[in-house]
Structure formats: structure tokens, C-alpha cells
Backbone:
């Protein structure tokens, strides 16, 4: 019941998990840590999309990406 509760079409859930697996495989170059991270974040975004809508999932993704941009910026500034 964790992946499929019956409240949304099964093929939608199967397609989302399949797309997440394909996305995860695109991060093989990052090693096991990158694979695991992209899989978990993908599942979180799928959950957000199913329970709160696509717009919220997009906002969460943007915040997640901005976090890394800010970290890179502050590390670059601290080196100077």
C-alpha cells in the first residue's frame, strides 16, 4: 500500500516509478551515492505530485536546486 493505494490509476503510478528509474540511471556517473540520492528525491517528488499537485512538486524541485546553487556560491565566496 506504500506505492499504490488504489486512489489513483495504477498505470500512472507505474509510469511515474518507471520514469524515476530512468532518471536515476542517468546519474550513474555520480556513483552509488548519486544513484540513491536521485532515486529518493525522485520518489519524494512523485509523492508531492500525487498528493499536492504538479506545481508543488516543481516548486520543491526548484527549492532543492537553489539550495545547491547557494551552497556553491557561498563556498566560492569563502575561498576568496
Residues:
Amino acid at each position: 500500500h506504500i506505492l499504490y493505494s488504489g486512489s489513483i490509476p495504477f498505470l500512472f503510478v507505474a509510469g511515474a516509478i518507471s520514469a524515476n528509474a530512468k532518471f536515476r540511471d542517468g546519474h550513474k556517473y555520480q556513483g552509488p551515492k548519486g544513484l540513491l540520492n536521485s532515486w529518493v528525491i525522485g520518489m519524494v517528488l512523485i509523492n508531492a505530485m500525487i498528493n499536492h499537485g504538479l506545481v508543488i512538486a516543481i516548486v520543491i524541485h526548484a527549492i532543492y536546486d537553489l539550495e545547491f546553487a547557494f551552497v556553491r556560491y557561498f563556498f566560492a565566496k569563502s575561498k576568496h
In short: Helices lie at 10-25, 31-52, 54-79. The mean pLDDT is 87.
